[in-house]
Amino acid sequence: MTRKAAASSPGWDDEDTPEWTDDQLDRAELAIGADVVRPAQGTLTRVGRPPLGEAAKRQVTLRLDPDVIEWFREGGPGWQGRINEALRRAAGL
Questions:
Q1: What is the SS3 assignment for 37?
Q2: Reduced to 3 states, what is the DSSP secondary structure of residue 57?
């Protein structure tokens, strides 16, 4: 009889997991065995960005030359923010 191969995934490592916040603990489901003492209230993480009110950025359609877009994209992630900063400097803001 052949032996079953060990699982390829590494074991659980508590050092890699982030600490729970008090807010997450307050909203988490509380169970003892299979008995749910308190159901979960909402989600443990917030979905999406928080509302920014008047400071929220607005989506617009803007046509730019392909070479300009490529130049900003070559800088890696955050290229749209760099375009925004360049426009702010050009406008003197």
A1: strand
A2: coil
